[in-house]
């Protein structure tokens, strides 16, 4: 299959978008609306300081990462349905880098995947001149469903964004149709990490959600990932997802999610495989407390290949110690229980995972995580999170803890 990569580095799309904006006619009739759009725009500023601790068996020193992320953006007003958005993002280490990252060449500390770099995070043109339709072209952040297949990895200091064209349409009643063409993934490890900071691809995504059912929402999707250089990562995934809730009396409700997908080799992938995915989750919400039980399978094709979701917000899946950012060849079965709620305005959550393989009868290990987050006011939020992974047949014992404060101005 012929490859036609469009983006080779993180500067191409922002420069092309800015060039398109600069090339607009300079006549008075056009200049006045453009000037007004810029004047009527809106700036955004946010920052997040975070301390991360990692104690991992087999590595002589613990990791102590103190980093701050700042984002500065500007969204223009509209001109004949067109608008633009530009956002810069910077991640800076505070003090000594006593942690390994994709860019600092440290090897005697555990990894903290928050490399230091300043880059263009988003830069896109937007058109909203058609009824119930939103079109974007350029570097953009977008997520689908619960981030399992397409996400922005917002937990990490450097977000994942996409150089893409996307269309979202809501013309049909209770229906949201999302289609996109991705030609580059700006990964959280950053461009400074080398070739894997950018994953060139020619990938199509489609997601159709129907919200007209009283019991919940039904979603059908297909994700066709065709990598330029990573042929073995090219896959096609097709699935269905149903999620909703039902009242149980006046003060409680039942929560439920069912999802199934199939994944196969795609495009120039040299391997041949078929794998399955499912998510079964149920819960109860009452008196401000939510309890959930669930099981997620990322299946294996007899140990030769496993179901992968490389564009996901992976930190949110299968444990906060990030042991399963890539699915092991023998697959993964994650059985979990969680409880969450609020006390004194503090968001509280605890979750426990039991990890096993899909084939070969391996007991990977267990993980327990806790979280507390408190909005101090409309601008500042303070948070704490910790997780402990106890290894059996996979990886090593690992403890992680985070303390952060974020600000949105």
From TrEMBL:
Keywords: Signal. Residues 105-167 form the Alginate export domain. It holds the Pfam family Alginate_exp. InterPro entries: Alginate_export_dom, Porin_dom_sf. Gene3D superfamilies: Porin. The keyword Mitochondrion does not apply. The keyword Transit peptide does not apply. Residues 1-31 form the signal peptide. This is Alginate export protein. The lineage of its organism: Bacteria, Pseudomonadati, Pseudomonadota, Gammaproteobacteria, Halospina.
């Amino acid at each position: 299959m012929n490859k036609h990569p469009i983006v080779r580095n993180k500067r191409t799309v922002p420069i092309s978008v800015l060039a398109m904006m600069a090339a607009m006619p300079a006549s008075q009739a056009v200049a006045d609306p453009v000037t007004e759009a810029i004047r009527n725009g809106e700036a955004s500023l946010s920052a997040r300081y975070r301390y991360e601790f990692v104690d991992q068996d087999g590595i002589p020193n613990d990791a102590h990462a103190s980093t701050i992320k700042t984002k500065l953006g500007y969204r223009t007003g509209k001109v004949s349905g067109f608008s633009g958005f530009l956002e810069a993002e910077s991640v800076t280490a505070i003090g000594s880098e006593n942690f390994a990252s994709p860019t600092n060449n440290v090897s005697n500390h555990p990894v903290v995947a928050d490399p230091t770099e300043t880059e263009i995070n988003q830069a896109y043109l937007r058109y909203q001149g058609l009824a119930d339709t939103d079109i974007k072209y350029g570097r953009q952040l977008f997520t689908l469903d619960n981030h399992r297949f397409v996400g922005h990895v917002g937990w990490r200091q450097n977000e994942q964004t996409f150089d893409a064209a996307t269309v979202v349409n809501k013309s049909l009643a209770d229906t949201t149709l999302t289609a996109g063409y991705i030609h580059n993934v700006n990964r959280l490890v950053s461009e400074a990490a080398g070739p894997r900071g950018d994953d060139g691809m020619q990938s199509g995504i489609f997601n159709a959600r129907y919200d007209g059912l009283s019991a919940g929402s039904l979603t059908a999707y297909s994700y066709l990932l065709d990598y330029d250089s990573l042929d073995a990562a090219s896959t096609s995934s097709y699935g269905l997802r149903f999620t909703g809730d039902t009242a149980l009396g006046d003060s409680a409700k039942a929560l439920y999610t069912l999802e199934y997908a199939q994944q196969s080799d795609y495009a120039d992938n040299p391997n041949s495989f078929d794998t399955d995915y499912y998510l079964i989750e149920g819960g109860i919400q009452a008196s401000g407390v939510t309890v959930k039980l669930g099981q997620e399978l990322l299946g294996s094709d007899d140990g030769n290949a496993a179901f992968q979701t490389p564009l996901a917000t992976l930190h949110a899946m299968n444990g906060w110690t990030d042991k399963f950012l890539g699915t092991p060849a023998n697959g993964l079965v994650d059985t979990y229980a969680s409880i969450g709620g609020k006390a004194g305005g503090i968001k509280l959550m605890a979750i426990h995972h039991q990890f096993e393989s899909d084939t070969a009868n391996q007991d990977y290990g267990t993980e327990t995580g806790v979280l507390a987050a408190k909005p101090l006011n409309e601008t500042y939020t303070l948070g704490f999170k910790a997780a402990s992974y106890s290894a059996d047949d996979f990886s090593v014992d690992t403890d992680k803890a985070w303390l952060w404060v974020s600000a949105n101005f």
